[in-house]
Amino acid sequence: MRDIKFRAWDRFAKEMVFAKTIDFGTNGAECIVDSDEIIGEVESEWDLEQFTGLYDKNGKEIYEGDIVKVYGFSKVTVGKVVYENYYFTLDGFCDTGTDRPEMAFSEGEFKVNSEGEPEVNYEVVGNIHENKELLDD
After folding, report:
1. Rounded CA gap, 47 and 128, in Å?
2. 4, 22 in Cβ contact below 8 A?
3. More confidently predicted of 30 and 108
4. Is residue 89 part of a domain?
5. CB-CB contact of 95 with 76 (8 Å)
6. Which domain holds residue 46?
7. Domain assignment of residue 78, yes or no
């Protein structure tokens, strides 16, 4: 089982914070307390992003909103991590109607090398809040 973690982009301070406590109401997450005991409202002050349970090739945690480079295909692909339906994927990964985005980025699914170890082909290069220009390539 993977760790359930969240981070949030503070729209006013323009920085990423890690959620210590999240208060849920009838419509989902409403309020977050970060590690500095600062309280913020999810809809108006902070953008909440969930940990995917995956790590990139450098051991960095991958969250929703991260901009990730994917290696190992015919070309290097760059995309934003999003949660769709029941899986994490890369927004814009598909370039034809027959591609299956869930095969690009899914919880715990990696290629395996000849020694049976995971072959990690992802690298976090930024996030949508601080590095949107990385998606323009």
Report:
1. 11
2. no
3. 30
4. yes
5. no
6. 6-136
7. yes
Considering the entire predicted model, what is its pTM? 0.78
For residue 81, the domain's CATH number is: 2.30.30.290
Query: So what's the pLDDT on residue 131?
Result: 94
Q: Is residue 1 assigned to a domain?
A: no
Q: How many domains does the chain have?
A: 1
Residue that has been written with the tokens 């899986």 in this structure: 87
CA 81 vs CA 39, 102, 116: distances in Å: 26, 12, 26
Q: What is the C-alpha to C-alpha distance for residues 59 and 70, in angstroms, rounded to an integer?
A: 15
* Distance from C-alpha of 107 to C-alpha of 121, rounded to nearest angstrom: 14
User: Predicted confidence band at 76 (pLDDT cuts at 50, 70, 90)?
Assistant: confident
Q: Quick check: helix, strand or coil at residue 15?
A: strand
Are 72 and 119 in contact by the 8 Å Cβ rule? The answer is yes
